[in-house]
Amino acid sequence: GSHADECPLQLNPQRVVVKYGGSVSVDCSPSVPHKGMGWVSSEGPVPMTRDSLITWRVSELREWGIVPSCFINYNKTQCIVDLPVTIYKTPDSVSISTVNHNGPMMERNQYELQCDVLNVAPVQYLTVNWYKGQTLVDQTNFTDTIKTPVSKTSKLLIRPDRADDGAQYWCEAKLELGEEGPQPPPTAPSETLNVEVYYKPKHSSSTETIIKTKEVSLNCTVKANPAPTYSWQSEHLRETISSSVLLTSTLSSGTYNCTATNSQGSDFKEFILKSTGSRPTFWNVLIFSQLLVASIIVT
């Protein structure tokens, strides 16, 4: 037959995207008089007719590689136009896991996450999106042209730090099927993977100077995972103290050293406690003022 570009047939729509097992309907109409036209298809064929519009219709499309064609006989020749059909299937499941690792992750070590997408088609339109919380961190695309459902795996390398403790990673399978496809594109998310990160204590400063008052304390509390233990050293302490906070009202002026420790390491902080010094009280000021006035009068 003649080349499709020269064939006087119009398909409406010119391309179809249909979910596996879904219904489809496409019209074929000629732009010239003809002696017969029809649809050739393994499902829903339309016998040759003299009508001016014929419809290919299937109520439940289940043949993955189907290529329906509308043909026309005119001017002692025949030409054919193929209808591009994309049959899609959303995944049976999307799951996320850690590769060869269980339990907490160690700060600055590298780990591999895996996203498994089960039975999706067509895979050439599949994108796997990786998220940390609500932030997109990576994408994986596939070039396979197979039309039937397949399972695919995407992997993500991460190197967590202390800020990632409690972070939630998840992945999403997305079928981007073009303008003719469903809008918005079908998506299937995984469950979230909660990341626990072990990291050592780390104070914001190594030294702190404190002026002694009744309300002030020496606070060695620091974030770490697992939770740290504390120990204090000072020539002014007569007993071992494991609390993270010391009240200055019970302490002498001097230097106090605190060490916070967990399974990942330790961190040291020095506190310098200074006394408030002698300050004039109200009565001191009053007596001094009276003496000054008396001195002036005598003079």
Structural class: mainly beta
Shape: rod-shaped
* Rg over alpha carbons: 39 Å
Please state the average pLDDT score.
Answer: 90
Helix count equals 1
Helix content: under 10%
Order of helices and strands: EEEEEEEEEEEEEEEEEEEEEEEEEH
Describe the biggest sheet?
Answer: 5 strands, antiparallel
Strand percentage: over 45%
Low-pLDDT stretches are: 278-288, 291-299
Q: Whole-Å distance between the termini?
A: 133 Å
Number of strands: 25
Provide key terms for this protein:
single chain; 299 residues; five-stranded antiparallel β-sheet; 1 helix
Architecture overview:
With 299 residues, the protein is mainly beta. Helix content is 6%, strand content 45%. The protein is built from one helix and 25 strands. The strands form eight sheets. Strands 13, 14, 16, 17 and 18 form a five-stranded antiparallel beta sheet that branches. A four-stranded antiparallel beta sheet has the order 5-4-7-8, with no helix packed on it. A four-stranded mixed beta sheet has the order 20-25-24-22, with no helix packed on it. A hairpin with a 2-residue loop joins strand 24 and strand 25. The longest helix is centred in the last third of the chain and has 17 residues. The chain starts with 8 loop residues before the first strand and ends with a helix. 21% of the residues are buried.
